[in-house]
Automatic annotation (TrEMBL):
It catalyses: a 3',5'-unsubstituted flavanone + 2 reduced [NADPH--hemoprotein reductase] + 2 O2 = a 3',5'-dihydroxyflavanone + 2 oxidized [NADPH--hemoprotein reductase] + 2 H2O + 2 H(+). Its cofactor is heme. The lineage of its organism: Eukaryota, Viridiplantae, Streptophyta, Embryophyta, Tracheophyta. Keywords: Heme, Iron, Membrane, Metal-binding, Monooxygenase, NADP, Oxidoreductase, Transmembrane, Transmembrane helix. InterPro entries: Cyt_P450, Cyt_P450_CS, Cyt_P450_E_grp-I, Cyt_P450_sf. Heme binds at C445. This is flavonoid 3',5'-hydroxylase. Pathway: Pigment biosynthesis; anthocyanin biosynthesis. Belongs to the cytochrome P450 family. Pfam families: p450. PROSITE patterns: CYTOCHROME_P450. The chain crosses the membrane at residues 6-25.
Amino acid sequence: MVIQMVLLRDLFAAATLFFITRYFIRLIISKPRRLPPGPKGWPIVGALPLLGKMPHVALFELARKHGPVMYLKMGTCGMVVASTPDAARAFLKTLDLNFSNRPPNAGATHIAYDAQDMVFAEYGPRWKLLRKLSNLHLLGGKALEEWAIVREIELGHMIRAMCESTRRVEPVVVPDMLTYAMANMIGQIILSRRVFVSTGDESNEFKDMVVELMTSAGFFNIGDFIPSIAWMDLQGIEGGMKKLHKKWDALITKMISDHKKSAHERKGKPDFLDVIFANRENSEGERLSDINIKALLLNLFSAGTDTSSSIIEWALAEMVKNPTIFRKAHAEMDEVIGRNRRLQESDIPKLPYLQAICKETYRKHPSTPLNLPRVSSEACEVNGYYIPKNTRLSVNIWGIGRDPNVWENPLDFTPERFLSGRNAKIDPRGNDFELIPFGAGRRICAGTRMGIVLVEFILGTLVHSFDWKIPTGTELNMDEAFGLALQKAIPLSAMVTPRLAPAAYLA
């Protein structure tokens, strides 16, 4: 018995020595797992208090100190921030598949039907089906051509309404006007009807819902980073999201119900929603539920109206601030188009200065200042730094656009920078990481093509059709309001004067 106990003791000691030795050998021969540099932050909450009310600006300043790949402890979660084109390329191109999912968050849960939409859905068969149907029948090149007439008609409605405002000597509130017009464009394509017959309380409420969605979804919610206290809703964000979701769900439910009742009116002319219901199942057996379809409509009506309208509003504000840009744009358009007709989409390739204005706005005022967050599926390495599994990724698109190492005089609004030299070939569609307003990689914004078409066509039409001035006695405010989309803190309000032949506004 004693001998057995001695043998067991010696065996246990030998095993312990073996595992300790192996551990230290691994420690010696393995590469050190070095996290990217970053601020220390506070106990428990980490770097959350450092972000303030303008996280994109705070992260830009922190990156200047800590480097292009920066690691922050955010509550119990880790977050890595990419702040240069090369860093963005490493994450969104080289490691694209590893960062193809979104982290869980309150916005996806409480607004987007528990991530049943296209924006927050897990990368997989359901997401691919949502994306495929959207590209084929709404957002892709062929679909955009088919629906060009809708954009032209709705823009005509907007132009004529603006002419009416000039007769009443009233300023045009740009974001209200744009949201109303874009919602009707999308409504015509998705539902075969205008969402709003006229501007008024209903359309204003819709705009408020869109802005609230984009603002609340952009918040850094403490509960997302410290899940154990999420139930407390310390900032009141989740309660607001739940109330907002009820409003959106009621609106979308009514849209679908009215659409089904009018099915007989669309015999042989199916719209986007008809196509979605008819093709809701793919060859892999993945089937879209009614909730998936409602969540997709939520994406299209919110992101489809807000992101493009914010870009157009910023562009007009920058041009009003610098009338020389307006004069150059008018001169180009008058030469190519003249003043006897409205701008058409086919004119845009002949208007390089207009396209340069759009690119310069994407650079200085990207609609999503921090690319929608992603999360690492597995541990990986970037620039020699170890990135653990389940690390959140933010790409500071706004910061890249303001980087003096990338752009000359980045705080100036200078469209000419895109007319010659190395910048002339830069394209905003996700391959040139100096300018990625829509993101990049497989989770690039699904509406990239549509967004570019809308911005160029609508902005071009507004510039060509009118002279713009700030109302007498007011000042132009260029402050930002942070959210999922980067809004102007004070909406642009301007007096417009028609500059084309009267018949051009009747077309």
